[in-house]
Amino acid sequence: MSNKIIMLFVFFVTLGVFAQQNEITTIKNVLDAWHKAASDADFDTYFELMTEDGVFLGTDATENWQNKEFRNFSKPYFNKGKAWSFAAVERNVYLDEAKNLAWFDELLDTQMKLCRGSGVLKKVKGEWKIAHYVLSIAVPNENVGDLIALKKVSDSLLTTKLKEKYKN
């Protein structure tokens, strides 16, 4: 009797591992399709892969795009025939226990060289959708000092403006 219980336990654990791996593969495919849609200037597919309340945070400190604003910002780029081209060279995906929420990080080969993307996907009507995406430029530690000097003035001006805005 105990061998049967152990075999059933192993079977269900294995089944769970396969189910989780299948979800992760599906999520990776969604992210790849999303990046491809941008590269192909496929506006409809790109935004169909995001939630209606999706958020895109760009590399500029002022780029906190809610879905509708991001659509408006992006449309001229897509209309030109190519928006941007990101290809994952490394990616990690994590799932919650219910397999309805996932988060990820990825290194991307882009026109800006290496960038980091990270975000959250959630299941909407059985399909994985990107709910939140953060894009950042990867800066080698030895170059951070130079980068800080380069953006010191613009960051100071923006920081002052934002502090005033949030005081009120």
TrEMBL record:
Positions of the SnoaL-like domain:
27-140
Cross-referenced Gene3D superfamilies: 3.10.450.50
Annotated signal peptide: 1-19
Q: What keywords is this UniProt entry annotated with?
A: Signal
Q: What is this protein called?
A: Nuclear transport factor 2 family protein
